[in-house]
Design brief:
With 140 residues, the chain is mainly beta. The protein is 5% helix and 51% strand. Strands 1, 2, 3, 4, 5, 6, 7 and 8 form an 8-stranded antiparallel beta sheet that branches. It is globular and about 65 Å long.
């Protein structure tokens, strides 16, 4: 387990058709996380106009950006989902944070958002991993 500040590359992302086939995706350069919370609001009279709130739901999206690496198992797996829909676009996904926390998503929705690029550049591979139901969160 790491403490203190740490470089972003200490985050580890793995993906596969199942937990048993998890592998990293080579040549990913950046990631960002967007958290979507559902918040219900109401204004009961006893609060004298002040709003009450309760978070009633949650979801998140992890965006990964990097280069297309033909021959890497993880990179090929993600690229192969580019035109898939429905359950065929789902995968097992696992994120291990530097503090040892692991977030596992059994049927994550994988949305490939970009490939290609300039003729003098390196081909890109960009994708989103979207939560699909409650993830399993554990800390070592």
């Amino acid at each position: 387990m790491n403490t203190g500040v740490y470089p972003v590359f200490n985050n580890v992302f793995k993906i596969g058709a199942s937990k048993e086939s998890l592998t990293t995706v080579a040549d990913m350069e950046t990631f960002s996380v967007s958290i979507n919370g559902n918040v219900a609001e109401w204004t009961p009279m006893e609060q004298e106009g002040w709003i009450r709130r309760l978070k009633t739901g949650c979801g998140f999206t992890i965006s990964l950006n990097g280069k297309r690496n033909v021959g890497d198992t993880g990179n090929d797996f993600v690229a192969g989902l580019v035109f898939e829909t429905g359950q065929d676009s789902q995968a097992y996904f696992e994120w291990t944070m530097p503090d040892g926390t692991t977030i596992a998503i059994e049927n994550a929705v994988i949305n490939v958002t970009a490939c290609g690029g300039n003729s003098t550049d390196v081909d890109v591979l960009e994708f989103e991993v979207m939560s699909n139901g409650k993830p399993t969160i554990s800390n070592l």
